[in-house]
Amino acid sequence: xxxxxxxxxxxxxxxxxxxxxxxxxxxxxxxxxxxxxxxxxxxxxxxxxxxxxxxxxxxxxxxxxxxxxxxxxxxxxxxxxxxxxxxxxxxxxxxxxxxxxxxxxxxxxxxxxxxxxxxxxxxxxxxxxxxxxxxxxxxxxxxxxxxxxxxxxxxxxxxxxxxxxxxxxxxxxxxxxxxxxxxxxxxxxxxxxxxxxxxxxxxxxxxxxxxxxxxxxxxxxxxxxxxxxxxxxxxxxxxxxxxxxxxxxxxxxxxxxxxxxxxxxxxxxxxxxxxxxxxxxxxxxxxxxxxxxxxxxxxxxxxxxxxxxxxxxxxxxxxxxxxxxxxxxxxxxxxxxxxxxxxxxxxxxxxxxxxxxxxxxxxxxxxxxxxxxxxxxxxxxxxxxxx
Length: 387
What we know:
Blueprint: H1 2-23, E1 31-37, H2 44-63, E2 72-78, H3 83-95, E3 101-104, H4 108-121, E4 125-127, E5 142-144, H5 149-163, E6 168-174, H6 177-192, E7 196-203, H7 211-219, E8 224-227, H8 231-244, E9 249-252, H9 259-265, E10 273-276, H10 285-298, H11 304-322, H12 327-335, E11 350-351, E12 357-358, E13 361-367, E14 370-377, H13 380-383
Parallel strand pairs: 1-2, 1-3, 3-4, 4-5, 6-7, 6-8, 8-9, 9-10
Antiparallel strand pairs: 10-13, 11-12, 13-14
Helix pairs in contact: 2-11, 3-4, 5-6, 7-8, 8-9, 11-12
């Protein structure tokens, strides 16, 4: 019996040697991918959600065989939504952790800063939800699966004038990459459609007091207020708008798409409509798996930020399976992607030459304290990025 055991061991070892010599290398224990997101600071709720989304993607992929039999390994660092920290994190992921690719689960400023580091190192990076146009313009290694600001701003304009029929529009813009880039494309769209901008002003990140400015907006009698902001600013805007008696429909964006917004805004959130990538009422199996599993795992409802980061990892895994693990193989597979369905916020039709995704964008309305489906925008003229 002992001789038989030794025979089996020798055969197994021989096969292993054959496999190694035939392939030219040993099979890796895992493929490391990096993620950076703000899990401390003002954006901690979004950054934690992004990390959770990436974790669920790795779980989903590994439970189904990993990358052609090799599991994914996620390496995460906190960037606090600060560009300088994002640069340091990117270097650490590349030089210390030797990741083969990375995902941004952070805001536009941090993502833009890190993108340059990954581009210089020749390591592919996918932005999950940061909207600024300059991110993908960094170079051929930098891709985006969330809606580009130009697209989301246009969709916001279409929601305002084509769906809601607004003629008089007020704009309140957070003064950073996120807000300004959205406002530019929104304004361009609504003016081209014949609407009038009756009020326009910017405010700084972290602003808490909006009553004076909202009273000035009220005096202009707008049909719609297009107000950009993250969940803290957004909650203050909608609560204080209700306090001063502003009756205009408030249109927000993905920055509102957080359980924290609903919690902080309370009843004042009712009727607010946002443009976002996640449709909670979608019947797609993977979307419902994500929404259900997220809440079961983390005890809070899923949001767009987590779902978009989940999708960035899913698209990266697709590229690794289809193309290979070398940078040029990954970007080639991304360029050839068509009608990708394994995404919680999908489907994704394709990437443009500028590495921007072509995908539908939805509008959600707050109803009974939850985000619900309001409209979907899939007109190619709206959703196709200009580069």
